[in-house]
Design a protein that fits this description.
This protein is mostly beta strands and 171 residues long. Helix content is 0%, strand content 47%. The strands form 2 sheets. Strands 2, 3, 4, 6 and 7 form a 5-stranded antiparallel sheet that branches. β8 and β9 (155-168) form a beta hairpin.
């Protein structure tokens, strides 16, 4: 169901003379990847408490949610795994990464979900296999990120503790 994200890979150079050897064009191809978001917890959530909260993670046209928790400081400790397609010029090189959006949502009285705050996160590091064809050790580095909302997206609505991982998936 996922559409291939649009991507442009550019190389800009500036030279003082015209005798410059030009580089060959890089051929970009869509490749399958797995992005994992480790959602630990949220704190400082603005709004009526207690309420049912969940976290939505979106990347490259794919979106998944954690389970719903009815806590003042919800602790999910869940891994959100998404199969995505990213563009890369070589299968062993990190791809052109799409931004990830983390959103804290609350159930409203009707049962629908309302976005409280969100943050757009960048992640570039891709785990790879070493010369022995074994995965390198994963160093989980959780970070607190501010989720903003309001009419102009400038008011801090919550903080979330998350970590990310990017892996190449077999086609």
């Amino acid at each position: 169901d996922q559409k291939v994200p649009a991507s442009i890979l550019m190389c800009l150079e500036q030279h003082t003379n015209e005798n410059v050897q030009r580089h060959n064009r890089k051929y970009v191809q869509p490749l399958p990847y797995i992005v994992r978001a480790y959602v630990f917890m949220a704190r400082e959530i603005a709004g009526e408490l207690p309420q049912d909260f969940a976290m939505r993670v979106s990347c490259a046209g794919t979106s998944k949610m954690t389970s719903v928790r009815r806590e003042v400081r919800p602790m999910w400790r869940e891994t959100v795994e998404m199969n995505i397609t990213l563009n890369s010029n070589h299968k062993d090189e990190p791809p052109t990464m799409e931004p990830m959006t983390i959103t804290v949502v609350a159930k409203d009285k009707v049962g629908g979900l309302k976005d409280l705050g969100k943050s757009i996160c960048g992640y570039e590091y891709m785990r790879q296999k070493d010369s022995m064809n074994k995965w390198e050790a994963f160093k989980l580095v959780p970070q607190w990120i501010e989720l903003t909302g309001g009419n102009y997206g400038t008011i801090v609505k919550a903080e979330a503790l998350v970590a990310f991982e990017l892996l190449q998936r077999r086609a």
